[in-house]
């Protein structure tokens, strides 16, 4: 594959026009509602095009997740045209035009950047390190294309003429399956270090070859992720690991030195993660391929398990009950991880429930086993138990029993439960004294 960028100048405002006879995109492949939005904007005298990932995906013969529109109409003008539009955003206002369950995002062309990091607009604020903290100026079609991150995401499609408009040689890059930053890579990564993660994600998800100048600075610039808010990194984690390519994405993050910036010190050798983590990532990919639901809570339970289990073992040795030890160790691990990647409470709750249910699988007899099967998180915790078997082969018989008990009818299940070994043997744990509650000041 040729990795040499096309050399056509991109400093002018006239795009390369690619006709339908060459690009092959059909109008019927585009959301009907997106076409309606564009047609109404164009009929009102505005420029309006499909933009970004949807065009890239159509060219790569992948089904787009959504269809976005870019226009020279202001947000207020968009709202006047569409009664079903709602303006959102504080830094840069966007219009969401709702058609039932489908939302078409419409953005005004943005300026404030020419792809090489040099800009003196008053509305574009750049910190000393080169990171952009405010960038909310309107611009032209050409400026909007050149300020985007990768060339493959900067293409525009005009359904009226069925042509692609290309300001940055993105069409050639898509055809050669090449990932290339717009502008000078070091400056673009400094502007927004999350582009480091996006580069890894697009490379894996779209099976692209990263252009050498785009790939070159990533390892040395990975520490820039330190300055990204943990909540934003969590959003990126979802995109990285819930797109159906979790395991190869993990491998790419390790190769590019990005994983340690997200999960510092989690594994002794990230290139050889615990088998449970590898299996959890592969299991996530399989579930997505089969159209089954997945939750970040399960993945974080896998990522943090080694740390949680080691700490829980210490607490048990000090006299804590196993479930209490896992709850305390889990909370410690989640709080520590949140300094890098913030985990939403609903997902951290799932992870803690999965951890705390693990010792309960040892109680196979009587009412406790029946209650466990009826727990809301039973299936997730059971799947987690199965993943543990590779690293803890002594759990194989236990995991098989819980597999068998789910596959029989109710009568046979009750017989198995009543005849099962009691489990939970060993010396009784010393209960730690409860802390006295401090009276409320209210």
Descriptive account of the structure:
The protein is α+β, with helices and mostly antiparallel strands and 442 residues long. It has helices at residues 20-23, 32-43, 53-59, 75-81, 141-146, 170-175, 185-191, 194-205, 212-215, 218-221, 230-241, 246-255, 259-262, 275-289, 296-317, 322-337, 345-357, 367-373, 378-388, 396-406, 410-419, and strands at residues 16-18, 48-51, 68-71, 85-88, 94-99, 102-108, 124-126, 132-135, 156-158, 163-166, 178-179, 209-210. Among the domains are: 15-183, Beta Polymerase, domain 2 (2-Layer Sandwich); 296-419, cca-adding enzyme, domain 2 (Orthogonal Bundle). Helices cover 45% and strands 10% of the residues. A hairpin with a 4-residue loop joins strand 9 (156-158) and strand 10. The protein is elongated, with a radius of gyration of 26 Å. Residues 1-11, 114-126 and 425-442 have low confidence and may be disordered.
Mean pLDDT: 88
Number of helices: 21
Q: Which fold name fills CATH's third level, the topology of the domain at 15-183?
A: Beta Polymerase, domain 2
DSSP summary, beta strand count = 12
| Assembly state | single chain
Fraction of residues in β-strands = 5-15%
Distance between the termini: 70 Å
Q: Give the C-level CATH assignment of the domain at 15-183.
A: Alpha Beta
- Largest sheet at a glance? 8 strands, mixed
CATH superfamily of the domain at 15-183: Beta Polymerase, domain 2
Work out the helicity level. 40-55%
**Helices and strands: which structural class?**
alpha+beta
């Amino acid at each position: 594959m040729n990795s040499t960028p096309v050399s056509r100048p991109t400093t002018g405002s006239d795009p390369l026009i690619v006709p339908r006879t060459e690009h092959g995109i059909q109008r019927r492949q585009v959301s009907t509602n997106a076409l309606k939005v564009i047609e109404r904007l164009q009929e009102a005298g505005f420029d309006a095009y499909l933009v970004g990932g949807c065009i890239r995906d159509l060219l790569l013969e992948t089904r787009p997740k959504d269809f976005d529109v870019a226009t020279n109409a202001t947000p207020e003008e968009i709202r006047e045209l569409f009664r079903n539009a709602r303006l959102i955003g504080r830094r840069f206002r966007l219009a969401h035009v709702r058609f039932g369950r489908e939302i078409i995002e419409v953005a005004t062309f943005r300026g404030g950047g020419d792809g090489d990091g040099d800009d003196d607009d008053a509305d574009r604020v750049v910190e000393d390190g080169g990171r952009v903290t405010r960038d909310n100026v309107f611009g032209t079609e050409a400026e909007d294309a050149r300020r985007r991150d990768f060339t493959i995401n900067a293409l525009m499609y005009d359904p009226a003429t069925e042509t692609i408009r290309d300001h940055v040689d993105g069409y050639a890059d898509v055809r050669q399956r090449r990932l290339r930053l717009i502008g000078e890579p070091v400056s673009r990564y400094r502007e927004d270090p999350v582009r480091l993660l996006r580069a890894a994600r697009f490379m894996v998800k779209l099976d692209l070859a990263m252009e050498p100048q785009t790939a070159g600075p990533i390892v040395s610039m990975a520490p820039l992720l330190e300055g990204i808010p943990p909540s934003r990194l969590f959003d990126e984690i979802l995109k990285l690991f819930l797109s159906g390519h979790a395991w190869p994405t993990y491998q790419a993050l390790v190769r590019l030195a990005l994983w340690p910036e997200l999960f510092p010190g989690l594994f002794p050798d990230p290139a050889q993660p615990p088998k449970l983590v590898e299996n959890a990532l592969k299991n996530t990919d399989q579930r997505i391929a089969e159209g089954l639901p997945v939750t970040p809570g399960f993945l974080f339970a896998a990522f943090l398990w080694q740390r949680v289990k080691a700490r829980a073992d210490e607490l048990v040795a000090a006299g804590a009950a196993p479930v209490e030890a896992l709850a305390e160790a889990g909370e410690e691990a989640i709080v520590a991880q949140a300094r890098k990647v913030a985990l939403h409470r609903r997902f951290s709750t799932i992870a803690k429930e999965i951890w705390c249910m693990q010792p309960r699988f040892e109680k196979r007899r009587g009412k406790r086993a029946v209650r466990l099967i009826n727990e809301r998180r039973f299936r997730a915790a059971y799947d987690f138990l199965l993943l543990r078997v590779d690293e803890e082969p002594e759990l194989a018989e236990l995991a098989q029993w819980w597999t068998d008990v789910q596959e029989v009818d109710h009568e046979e299940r009750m017989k198995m439960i009543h005849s099962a070994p009691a489990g939970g043997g060993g010396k009784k744990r010393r209960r730690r004294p409860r802390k006295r509650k401090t009276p409320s000041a209210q």
